[in-house]
Write a structure and sequence with these properties.
The protein is of the alpha/beta class. Helix 2 crosses helix 4 (114-125) and helix 13 (400-416) runs parallel beside helix 14 (435-446).
């Protein structure tokens, strides 16, 4: 009896093309689909043989082996063309390049954009796996992960086997595993391999968290999307996109991909016809643009939110510290959700999935059952209770909007307990610098104590990041070493916050959530936010009484 793969790594390692593909067929596809300048060039520019076998695609010369197609992608820090000789030495069978290297003795496919060609080559290698799956893309600044969890739960409750590619977790077949990387939407070869593994595992639907980076960098160019959800669009990633409008437009491009075409036809999944659907948060200021683009693509628009005109509309919301109740009206009728999640913003995430069910014609009762069965998402409004007299919440909030939302949610809870708010957070190095003082100001205006610490400094000096955040907190009236602390070491920062917490306070540990490492110049260091918080509380003598 063949042993079934027990981990996602094993599943992906065992996912290979059944037989090598021929390089000429890739060249023909690039020319037909991309309109790119393509030709085969061998040594000295001679035309190469057209039957070169390819059994792997990568843009990382360290992952090249015999039979690999190496795609030389120019990047912000390094240029893949500089690693072409290393790829050849490792056994590359051919290369895709933007400029030919005459001294290289393997076939070279010359293209206008090797990044776009990487997506096409990856899709070609795995024989278009997304064509066999209903594909849901979820984008937005905040809420992507929770919405993806809710979507998988609702789809499976409705009888559809769903895979997941997301920030926190990967799910293929019935195997689910924490995602350790700090990249939500993986590179095209890894993404297509995962989709191929889902097809092999007989998943019927793939839920793909689709980031602005994944869209702008063509990682998802080979994915045939059937449905798209946008949660919201706020300030984030301007270090990459340059302007907020460019960031927004990258997310809008997901909805442009809903156009029905020979490459993205209407599908039949599990005997069900899958229409193209764009699901838009009617309460977001950018809703009109997403709606217009969806209509231009020829897809159905379904809006959700609290807006009176929304197709799926919350009519009443009740909440306490651990649960949400939401009554809503939808095209199929009225309903009520009893969610095991904290935070009013999660009503929007759930309504987006209700809208998905409406668009796909899923049984409303099954969708509700799936949503109500989700007890939480790692690192998202995760309560840490070890019997301490103050509250501790771990959340991934790492943008100005998400930090505002979470602090405003926690403020009345702290006030009801007779306490105030303490925030422990940082900001990522080599990322959006404009948001740093904004987040400091947001925390300074809402918290009685602000503790600024490392998030992922990368190659930036921690002091530079912390000072930028502190400037915003000082603008809000916080004073250094009084109610504003700058402590780079994250464990020490959390310890300082706990030592200063009073009974009734709520301490928010923001920005890391589920992530298992902190990225420094010297490399990643293991990290467990919730585990660290629990360990520190135990060291302080707190211990939850069983029962």
């Amino acid at each position: 009896m063949t042993r079934q793969p027990a981990s996602i790594a094993e599943i992906l390692a065992s996912t290979r093309p059944e037989e090598p593909r021929r390089l000429r067929s890739l060249v023909d596809r690039l020319a037909a689909e991309r309109g790119l300048r393509t030709l085969l060039a061998g040594p000295e520019g001679r035309e190469a043989a057209d039957d070169t076998p390819i059994d792997d695609v990568t843009d990382d010369s360290r992952r090249v082996g015999p039979g690999s197609l190496f795609v030389a992608v120019p990047g912000g820090h390094v240029d893949g063309h500089d690693f072409l000789e290393a790829a050849v030495a490792a056994g590359a069978a051919a290369a895709v390049v933007e400029r030919p290297i005459r001294a290289i003795a393997i076939p070279q496919v010359i293209v206008d954009s090797s990044r776009a060609a990487l997506a096409t080559a990856s899709t070609w290698l795995y024989d278009d796996p997304s064509q066999a799956l209903g594909v849901l893309g979820i984008t937005g600044t905040d809420g992507k992960t929770t919405t993806s969890y809710l979507a998988v739960a609702a789809l499976e409750a409705a009888g559809l086997s769903a895979g997941l590619i997301g920030t926190v977790e990967t799910k293929i077949g019935a195997v689910r595993e924490a995602h350790a990387e700090h990249v939500t939407t993986p590179a095209a070869p890894d993404l297509q391999r995962a989709l191929a593994a889902m097809r092999k595992a007989r998943n019927q639907v793939a839920v793909v968290e689709t980031t602005s980076h994944g869209l702008a960098l063509e990682r998802v160019a080979g994915v045939a999307y059937d449905a798209a959800i946008v949660t919201n669009v706020t300030h984030e990633h301007l270090e990459f996109h340059g302007t907020w409008e460019a960031y927004r437009d990258a997310k809008v491009s997901l909805f442009e991909r809903l156009t029905t075409s020979p490459r993205n036809p209407a599908k039949t999944i599990a005997g069900r016809s899958w229409p193209k659907i764009g699901i838009v948060n009617a309460d977001d200021p950018s809703a009109g643009l997403f709606v217009a683009v969806t209509r231009e693509a020829g897809a159905r628009v379904i809006t959700y939110g609290t807006d009176e005109a929304a197709d799926v509309r919350a009519t009443r919301i009740e909440e306490d510290a651990t649960r949400l109740r939401a009554w809503y009206a939808a095209p199929s009728g009225e309903g009520r959700l009893d969610l095991r999640l904290a935070g009013r913003f999660n009503v929007h995430n759930a309504l987006a999935v209700v809208a998905l069910g409406e668009g796909l014609g899923l049984a409303p009762d099954a969708v509700r059952a799936g949503l109500e069965g989700v007890s939480g998402v790692p690192g998202r409004m995760e309560r840490i209770d070890e019997g301490q007299p103050f509250g501790v919440i771990v959340d991934y909030a790492h943008s100005p909007a998400s930090l505002t939302t979470v602090l405003d949610l926690l403020a009345p809870i702290a006030a009801a307990r007779g306490g105030g708010l303490i925030a422990v957070f940082g900001s990522a190095g080599e990322r959006d610098v404009a948001k740093r003082p904004m987040m400091g100001r947001i925390a300074g205006e809402r918290c009685r104590l602000v503790v600024v610490t490392d998030e992922d400094p990368r190659d930036e000096a921690s002091e530079t990041i912390l000072e930028a955040i502190a400037a915003g907190a000082e603008d809000a009236g916080r004073r250094r070493d009084v109610d504003l602390l700058l402590i780079a070491d994250r464990r020490a920062a959390i310890e300082a916050a706990f030592e200063r917490a009073r009974p009734g306070d709520v301490v928010l540990l923001a920005g890391k959530g589920h992530e298992a490492t902190i990225l420094y110049r010297t490399g990643p260091r293991a990290w467990d936010e919730a585990g660290t918080a629990r360990a520190l509380l135990h060291e302080m003598g707190h211990a939850k009484v069983p029962g």
